[in-house]
DNA sequence: GTCTATAATCAGATAGAC
DNA sequence: GTCTATCTGATTATAGAC
């Protein structure tokens, strides 16, 4: 490749990147709105404004589309976690992460996947970007969890992994949808309610 | 109808009831195992051992099949609630109900529906048996919740409806699946872990 | 890489004989 | 009411021209 070709190639790659971003963004919205099964590849193509066949030039299957959306949300989680002060109270950082998850969910930006779909699970587990992101997030949160337990902030009788899963599960917590559907509470109120029940529990203190 | 016909008709109706029970039982298992979208009507027919067209003589649509399974699980919940001593500690009764939900779920008997599917929602809301059961359960739990709040057992700063939804959400809590998949904990341990995080929260007391 | 057109399949629902 | 056979529509994925 000659030197004069480099910018041209780079520009093309940037265009490609922009288009793929648009695709993943549309997939993210549709996954958050209707879930994996109800989302059709036709819809994705229509939202992006390209032909379905073009989609398949970028992503080999519907499962890979979903995986790309999960990589994206995992990247966002990593970005948020990295933005938190590492020297701060670990419990406060954990609260901040859960609050962030709830806000993304309330904004309708949290993609949800059916946990039982096996071909989807296989695609996700074969996706290194996703698995790396998942492990990175787990490590960061796990360290804070153990620190908070050592400091007597989080219950030490709960396995750290159970606490971690409890946080992850907030991303698909039906309480949020129930409360949102009722229309009785603002997004801020829902956030604080779920945060409170998650950390403080239901029993009076 | 003559007197001699009555037993015959009644027998026929009993046979019909038995068959429909078998259908709903199969639907329940499939919904618990793979969810609504992945469950096919062909599968249901195969499991019951009848032709698909016969299914449609009993239930007019796939949505109605799912609704029948939800009616069944709601009926079971009512039965369990009725089996509890009304004069007992309301908080203990609530714990018992949540424990029951978790055990049904861990046994793979809890049907789950996609909350976003609108035609399914419409079918459910048009089903009087389901709506009556849902309201009955809500009333019974709601009374215990308010009693427990008045007694200073449950946090009084949480709206009762939010607590109720938190209980309902245990029926589709992904933490249970996460912990079950890991294989590190027994069903009893998972039950106690989720019960503890639900009522006592994550923060050390 | 993007498009139009189409294949291939699958699943919900129905027709019509018995 | 039950069956076999079929319809109908939707959906994932691809062929092939440009």
Automatic annotation (TrEMBL), chains A, B:
DNA-binding region, residue intervals: 40-59
PROSITE patterns associated with the record: HTH_TETR_1 (PS01081), HTH_TETR_2 (PS50977)
InterPro entries per UniProt: DNA-bd_HTH_TetR-type_CS, Homeodomain-like_sf, HTH-type_TetR-like_transc_reg, HTH_TetR, Tet_transcr_reg_TetR-rel_C_sf
Listed SUPFAM superfamilies: Homeodomain-like, Tetracyclin repressor-like, C-terminal domain
Lineage: Bacteria, Pseudomonadati, Pseudomonadota, Betaproteobacteria, Burkholderiales
This protein's UniProt keywords: DNA-binding, Repressor, Transcription, Transcription regulation
Protein name: TetR family transcriptional regulator
Organism listed in the record: Rhodoferax fermentans
Domain of life, per lineage: Bacteria
Occurrences of domain HTH tetR-type (ranges): 17-77
Coiled-coil features, chain-numbered ranges: none
GO molecular function terms attached to this record: DNA-binding transcription factor activity; transcription cis-regulatory region binding
